[in-house]
């Protein structure tokens, strides 16, 4: 069976998708992830793991920490320091000789080879635009449909209705954890921090 290395894996939003595609998925994260949904989990430094073992995998998916480039950091949390590991991740990925992808938020300094949005998948209730930079592989850009409305939640003290859920941040007014799980199509994480850092998962077609 083909193997995917899921670097900076979190609880495994990406892992579940690769599993559904028939891959055996090995996740690596510096934090313990007892609810990781992949086939194997290794606690360790993802960059060091890629450099040492990346060449043994058929494909490498890397989701370096995105906080340095999120809208919250650039606005509300401006001035806070977060690690930016994209450049060093790209460097070690190139050194493996294997095909790879880096996934991150829209403001991240990655090449815009592919963009995915929750609106492309009608069963999801998030927008959550994410960019992907590929090495050694190409993926066609799917059509980006018009958003069906706005993200529900409070804006300047007023509540606004909408078909999408705000799965980010720590503030109130964004609904219960169960709503986040349903909106993202993932039901195994129990903590908001795990859910908001995950990639949404498509349900079977």
Brief characterization of the structure:
This protein has 205 residues and is an alpha/beta fold. It has helices at residues 13-20, 46-53, 71-74, 86-96, 177-184, 192-196; strands at 3-7, 24-29, 40-43, 59-62, 100-104, 114-116, 130-135, 153-155, 158-160. The two termini are 23 Å apart.
Task: Give an overview of the whole structure.
With 205 residues, the protein is of the alpha/beta class. It is built from six helices and nine strands, in the order βαββαβααβββββαα. The chain has a seven-stranded mixed sheet, with helices on both faces. Helix 2 (46-53) runs parallel beside helix 4. It is globular, with a radius of gyration of 17 Å.
List the helices and strands and how they pair.
Elements: E1 3-7, H1 13-20, E2 24-29, E3 40-43, H2 46-53, E4 59-62, H3 71-74, H4 86-96, E5 100-104, E6 114-116, E7 130-135, E8 153-155, E9 158-160, H5 177-184, H6 192-196
Parallel strand pairs: 1-2, 1-4, 2-3, 4-5
Antiparallel strand pairs: 5-7, 6-7, 8-9
Helix pairs in contact: 2-4
Largest sheet: 7 strands, mixed
Counting DSSP E segments of at least 2 residues, the number of strands comes to 9
Series of secondary-structure elements, N-terminal to C-terminal: EHEEHEHHEEEEEHH
General shape: globular
- Category by helix and strand content: alpha/beta
Mean pLDDT: 88
Order of the strands making up the biggest sheet: 3-2-1-4-5-7-6
Strand content: 15-25%
Kindly report how far apart the N and C termini lie.
23 Å
Q: What's the alpha carbon Rg, rounded to whole Å?
A: 17 Å
């Amino acid at each position: 069976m083909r193997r995917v290395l899921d670097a900076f894996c979190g609880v495994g939003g990406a892992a579940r998708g690769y599993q559904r595609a028939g891959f055996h998925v090995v996740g690596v994260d510096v934090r313990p992830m007892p609810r990781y949904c992949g086939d194997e989990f290794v606690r360790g430094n993802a960059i060091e793991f890629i450099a040492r073992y990346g060449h043994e995998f058929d494909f490498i998916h890397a989701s370096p920490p995105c906080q340095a480039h999120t809208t919250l950091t650039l606005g509300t949390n401006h001035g806070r320091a977060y690690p930016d590991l994209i450049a060093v991740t790209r460097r070690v990925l190139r050194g493996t000789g294997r095909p790879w992808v880096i996934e991150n938020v829209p403001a991240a300094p990655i090449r815009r080879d592919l963009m995915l949005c929750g609106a492309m998948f009608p069963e999801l209730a998030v927008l959550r635009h994410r960019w992907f930079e590929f090495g050694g592989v190409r993926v066609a850009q799917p059509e980006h449909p018009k958003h069906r409305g706005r993200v529900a939640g409070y804006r300047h003290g007023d509540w606004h209705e909408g078909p999408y859920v705000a799965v980010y941040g720590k503030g109130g007014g964004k609904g219960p954890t169960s709503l986040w799980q349903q909106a993202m199509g993932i039901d195994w994480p129990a903590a908001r921090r795990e859910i908001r850092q995950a990639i949404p998962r498509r349900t079977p077609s």
